[in-house]
Fold:
Amino acid sequence: MNLIANFAVLASRRMIFDLPVCDLGWDDALTFINELASLPLGQTVISFVNAHNMLVMLRDEHYRDVLVHNLVLPDGIGVDIASRVAHGASFPANLNGTDFVPALLTFMEQPKRIGLVGGRRDIVEKAAENFRNHAPWHEFVVISDGYFDKVDSSAVTSEIERQKLDVLIVGMGTPLQEKWVADHIRPQHARLVMTVGALFDFVSGTVPRAPRMVRALRLEWIFRLLQEPSRLWRRYIVGVPVFLFQVVWHRFGPRYSTLRQTVGSVRADAQRRLPAPEKFGR
Structure:
């Protein structure tokens, strides 16, 4: 993330698992990111983190290093729980990418040239079509599907640069998309980059969203699990308890470890100060 963006959000983030996560409300986030997209220099990369992303980050140092340099937005009830445990309050808003990106496109009144990368070709094409219907004053360009050589991406990056984009939306799944952007996308490609996971699946209509009431109750993850149990059971059935354990550990574990070390040090110091016992029989 460029220095201007980094400085601007410094006072509007809270640490979750030692990762700074933006704590702006909807209106402030839309206004702020719209301004970032209009900067004439630098680049801002936006990532969305949920409970699953956080668990991936805990075991993937490269992914963590990438996220630290991005503007990270909170997605879902999991990070809200982590925030309540760590800071005593939820995030001001659930800035999940599936809702936030379309809202941002609507909020941006100045026409933008927006590139899409990721997903199957038919899915990303349909997503672009629906984006055009959603915000017709922007120009949406399908750069590539997600099935290209991630190591040698010169053909894709050359096309991105040729298209002279304002915004690049990348949906290739976590942590691949964030790492790919960090390795290959530069300010000359786009001033604003958003890594959006499965957004194209939802926007294209390939994967239906949960009913509005289910989303309002913050239970969309259950709806998704019922839709795709074979793919998502491990993420939710195994991942949720592991995530909750990590939330508690990051809040209380280090304190307990420090307390135990302190008690041990005091005890050892006390032992050293005790007079040496006399030998038996003297």
Q: What stands out?
A: Residues 3-219 form one domain. Strands lie at 13-16, 19-22, 44-49, 71-74, 113-118, 139-144, 167-171, 192-195.
